[in-house]
Amino acid sequence: MRTPLIVVTGVDETAMDSALMSLSWDLANAVVVRHRIDPLHQVLSRVVSDATGVIEHETTALEHACTSCALREDVLPTLERLAREHRWSAIVVGLPLSMEAQQVTRAVSRDRRLARRLRLAQLVSAVAAADVVDTLLSDAALAERGLHTGPDDDRGVGEVACALVEACDLVVLDRDPGPEGLDLVRALARPTAHIASGADSLDPTALLAGRHSPAAAEAWSFPIDETPLATLTGSLAWRLDLCSPRPFHPERLLENVESLGAGPHRSRGCFWVPTRPGALQHWAGAGGQLSIGTTGRWGRRTPLTRIVLTGLGPTPSDLPRAFEDLLLTPQEGLEDQRTWAVVEDGLEPWLGDVLDAA
């Protein structure tokens, strides 16, 4: 019989500890694993505890202070080992601060050895209510707040915090965040996700009965088709779903990307450029910090450019125009492929070499 696994993520130490403590109390006979990364000393610490107290407290020197090393060297082996012991009715794992759970959820769902022993029940995002808006729409870098997972981690706080909320099945706020904060979280979270103001309101039976779907989480976090999103009604948050079959013009994207990516809002989605027609590009940003990159191939899918933007207050009127200005115009067209058969397009620092994308 597979052991239910609950994965807890977050960017706030106190909110994560509160959620983990509540889960340990509410889930009878559960074991809790807490991992932390020290990027300065390149050390991973692991604490394993249950109702009897602390069972293990170990530190491991990492070859590189990064999430991939932590997963490979300790997180996944520990989860498999605990599940193999059949001592507990559930495993709750608190990942290192700012670590996204996709690598864990993909490994558990795709690795036959892990899938035989573990069942993904819930992906939880623990959020501090006191500064929820400032966190989700922050333009600060993780390293500025000591939240980075390694020396090369240049991600933004808002970008990561939003991604954690979007991917989860359950958002646990440590208290009521107020109308604006709650509406922003609701706008970012999947429509099927549950939002709890206070971990003491969680239903242990529902937690264990859940089944996390990595595919559903990825489809919401990274929309690459034209599936419409639910309309926000009666909300203090706004959402713009900007979509076109046309690609971004590489020169205008390079020169004016901030017209769409800058500002106190969350943006996520996909795009393509005519100089790399087969490459699927990823767009993710918040608060003015933006990451773009190549994430795969379009394959048999029809390429499209789709950016979903979310924020608070009046809906900005300039963003649809900014989106349109970045797109190829019908007059520029794609018919003459020789126009776009270039050796360089200026996007190499973010998307890699053009020839590698061919």
**SSE topology string:** EHEEEHEHHEHHEHEHHEHHEEEEHHH
| Largest sheet, spatial ordering of strands | 4-3-2-5-1-6-7-8
Quickly name the level 1 CATH class of the largest domain: Alpha Beta
The amount of beta strand, in percent, is 25-35%
Description:
Residues 237-327 form the CobW C-terminal domain. This is GTP-binding protein. The chain has helices at residues 13-26, 67-85, 102-110, 112-115, 132-136, 157-167, 179-188, 204-209, 214-221, 250-256, 258-261, 319-326, 348-351, 354-357, and strands at residues 3-10, 30-38, 43-50, 53-61, 90-94, 118-127, 170-173, 194-197, 237-244, 266-271, 279-286, 289-297, 305-312. The protein has two domains: 3-220, P-loop containing nucleotide triphosphate hydrolases (Rossmann fold, 3-Layer(aba) Sandwich); 237-357, Hypothetical Protein Yjia, Chain: A,domain 2 (2-Layer Sandwich). Strand 10 (266-271) and strand 11 form a beta hairpin. It has an eight-stranded mixed beta sheet with strand order 4-3-2-5-1-6-7-8, sandwiched between helices. Strands 9-13-10-11-12 form a five-stranded antiparallel beta sheet. It has 14 helices and 13 strands. It has 358 residues and is an alpha/beta fold.
Quick take:
The protein is α/β, with parallel strands linked by helices and 358 residues long.
